[in-house]
Amino acid sequence: MPVSPARAAACDILLRVERESSYASELLHSAAYQSLSTADHALATELVMGVLRWRSRLDEELSSASSQPLPKLDLEILIALRLALYQFRWLDRVPARAALHESVELVKRARKRSAAPFVNAVLRKLSASPRDRRTSEDENSSADALVRAFAHPLWLVERWVKEYGLSTAQAICRHDQSIPATTIRLRDPKAEHQLSQENISLLPGGILASARRVQAGDITRTKAFRSGQVAIQDEASQLVAALIGSTQKQNLRVLDCCAAPGGKTLAIADRNPNSSVTAVELYPHRARLLQKLLRLRESAAHIHVVVADARQLPVSQAFDRILAFIIFSAVVFLALTAATLFRTITPVDSWWFPLAPIVFIAGSGLLALMLLLHALGPSLLGAAVVLAGLPVRWLLVRKTNLTRAVAAESS
After folding, report:
1. Which residues contact 256 (CB under 8 A, 6 or more apart)?
2. Does residue 44 contact residue 13 with C-beta atoms inside 8 Å?
3. What is the pLDDT of residues 364-408, one digit of tens each?
4. Which of the pair, 351 or 201, is modelled with greater confidence?
5. How confident is the model at residue 207 (pLDDT cuts 50, 70, 90)?
6. Could you give the number of structural domains in the chain?
7. Are strands 275-281 and 303-307 parallel, antiparallel or unpaired?
């Protein structure tokens, strides 16, 4: 019996993520999977994102049931096991026997038929055990318990516990593992009306007035999405483009130091149609993915992709805007930020990096997002500096056109 299209797609995508460091979100929305039905695409998305979110917890349970160390298993076998276990533990509507059978078939499909009995035995053992539902008391007993319960890195959880206490660290971990609403960026304002005609229900963004949250409907099936008039992009990423600002200045020069997969790069280019964007990516395979995405977009005409280490750029020109994702020690980070962040919209004479105003976004997504929202209110002159969940340092800075533009976006 052939494997269901959703599980086959999920397995193939997870393999590419592991082997090629591909971007799951880009693969899920690629042409290769457009033929999936709405239901199959939804299941494939749930399986891919669920396995990635909970991978360390899945592997911990698999290790206890496997007679073989997980690092010795072929990747196709390990992914088939993860897929089945995720369905056992998180998808109540999927019968365990169906998930088990399909994962065995996935192994056969990968030409690993000799491993089918092993996979069958491991999954039968796991399917017979009750769901692992730790109580809130168990979760909140220690940093180690939070790591196991919410599949987070130990070093990060320990830092949160030290700075905020167990209860707050638990709340952060729980939020991190929640499924976010789909958010889009309207590249063409007319697209909103087109989406309503295709039964897509939208809500205003929670942070940016220009963002839209999808309340109902499949955005990937719309003409506006297929033609590139809208892009799926979370509000944190859209906020980065807002921080860069919007200007009609001719030949504005923007340097994006960590460009792939390209969503923020494209948003910056859309907001600055007269700009020249240099998109730097360290890894060649990610740069190829970036180029592939940009080829499909009109704004890409003034985006130049460079494969390089941003610390050793093969260009000598100065830039008007620089986007860098950098994590320093707290002391160094504050010193650099005080010297460069939002100083002016003309090149600064900083002792550290005399090229341009630099937008630093560092640390964990949830904290950075919420604190930037608070910091960039219209009446506040400031920026929130978040370093991987360390306490916030507020920097009062000089007001510029850039900070005013961001405040307008956030209102």
Report:
1. 264, 265, 268, 277, 278, 279, 280, 323
2. yes
3. 333 333 333 333 333 222 333 333 333 333 332 222 333 333 333
4. 201
5. confident
6. 4
7. parallel
Strands 383-385 and 393-395: antiparallel
Which residues are CB-contacts of 159 (< 8 A; sequence separation ≥ 6)? 388, 389, 390
Reply yes or no on whether the pLDDT at 47 is more than 80: yes
Question: What pLDDT is stored for residue 247 in this prediction?
Answer: 67
- Indicate whether 152 and 91 sit together in one domain: no
- Reported for 378-384, long-range contacts at CB under 8 A and 24+ positions apart, including other chains, are 378/407, 378/408, 378/410, 378/411, 380/407, 383/337, 383/341, 383/342
Judge whether 28 and 51 are in contact, CB under 8 Å: no
Q: Which residue has the tokens 């669920």?
A: 50
Q: For residues 392 and 248, state if they share a domain.
A: yes
Task: State which amino acid sits at residue 116.
Answer: A
| Position 299 confidence tier, pLDDT thresholds 50, 70, 90 | low
Side chain identity, residue 373 = L
Mean pLDDT value across the chain: 75
In what side-by-side order are the strands of the sheet with 252-256? 303-307, 275-281, 252-256, 321-324, 358-360
- Written as one letter, the residue type at 157 is V
Residues comprising the chain, all counted: 411
Residue matched to tokens 């020690």: 329
| CATH number of the domain bearing residue 107 | 1.10.940.10
Q: Are 310 and 324 in contact (CB under 8 A)?
A: yes
Does 265 share its domain with 395?
yes
